[in-house]
Design goal:
Blueprint lengths: L4 E5 L3 H16 L7 E4 L7 E2 L2 E4 L1 H6 L5 E5 L4 H13 L2 E3 L2 E2 L4 E2 L3 E3 L4 E2 L4 E2 L3 E3 L4 E2 L4 E2 L4 E2 L4 E2 L4 E2 L3 E3 L4 E2 L4 E2 L8 E3 L4 E2 L4 E2 L8 E3 L4 E4 L3
Parallel strand pairs: 1-2, 1-5, 2-4, 5-6, 7-10, 8-11, 9-12, 10-13, 11-14, 12-15, 13-16, 14-17, 15-18, 16-19, 17-20, 18-21, 19-22, 20-23, 22-24
Antiparallel strand pairs: 3-4, 24-25
The chain binds uridine-5'-diphosphate.
Length: about 220
């Protein structure tokens, strides 16, 4: 019987971080390692970290009952393009999560997420599609996170924060908590620099850096 085929799309830094999580997740489900590959449109080798690397067309040609891919590319615009492409070809979004991720009460997580080790998502949280939460990041209560949002390692997103689509939050950034009915808002496509301490709203497309975070540029 033909089996499903699973892929980590992107065989560079991000993909090599996601692959072990994907492998472990499939092992927990009793699915053989051989059914897991990288996809890369510019493959650097036939095998990376023990896993075959296929071009996208090869991936589509490989025999499979269904195809799943997690988009392991930090650039959110690229993720979106690949999500559209995959959907058109019947490749299903795949969520890959480390086994020690903590998700508490009433968490809605959109399709295609990549959740790294030690990520914590507490209670009453809405998260959109293709979210990346890298090592040790957390999302506290009552946050609303859009589609294609990216957290680098160690992001501290406190309660009552809204993060719009395509925002990128750099490593170690701290986002101050908002208030019920008056959240702190990080606008669409905004970039928060590493280590920034965000104490007020960030306009769409803006880049902020420092402590307290200040405007570095107003368009991404
Ligand atoms: N990539 C791809 N298709 C795309 C865009 C990117 O296969 O449409 C691959 C690219 O060839 C590279 C990886 O994704 O191997 C992105 O790697 P990069 O080091 O730029 O970023 P990161 O791994 O940190 O996201």
């Amino acid at each position: 019987m033909t089996q499903p085929l699973f892929a980590v799309y992107g065989a560079s830094g991000c993909g090599r971080g996601v692959m072990p999580l994907a492998r472990a997740q499939l092992a927990r489900q009793g699915i053989a390692d051989a059914r897991l590959v990288f996809i890369d449109d510019a493959p650097v080798a036939a095998v990376v970290n023990g896993q075959r690397v296929l071009g996208y067309t090869e991936f589509l040609q490989e025999e499979a009952s269904e195809r799943y891919a997690v988009l392991a590319i930090a650039n959110s615009k690229m993720r979106e393009q690949l999500a559209v492409r995959c959907m058109a070809d019947g490749v299903r979004p795949w969520t890959v999560s480390a086994d020690n991720v903590v998700c508490m009460d009433d968490v809605t997580l959109g399709e295609g997420a990549a959740l790294s080790p030690f990520v914590t998502i507490t209670s009453n949280i809405r998260i959109g599609r293709h979210f990346h939460a890298n090592l040790y990041s957390y999302v506290e209560h009552d946050c609303v996170i859009g589609d294609f949002v990216t957290f680098a390692p160690g992001v501290k997103c406190n309660g009552n924060v809204v993060i719009e689509d395509h925002a990128y939050i750099g490593s170690g950034a701290v986002i101050k908590q908002g208030q019920p009915g008056k959240p702190l808002v990080i606008g669409r496509g905004a970039v928060v620099g590493m280590g920034a301490v965000v104490t007020r709203d960030v306009p769409a497309g803006a880049t902020v850096v420092g402590n307290p975070a200040r405007l570095f540029s107003s368009k991404g």
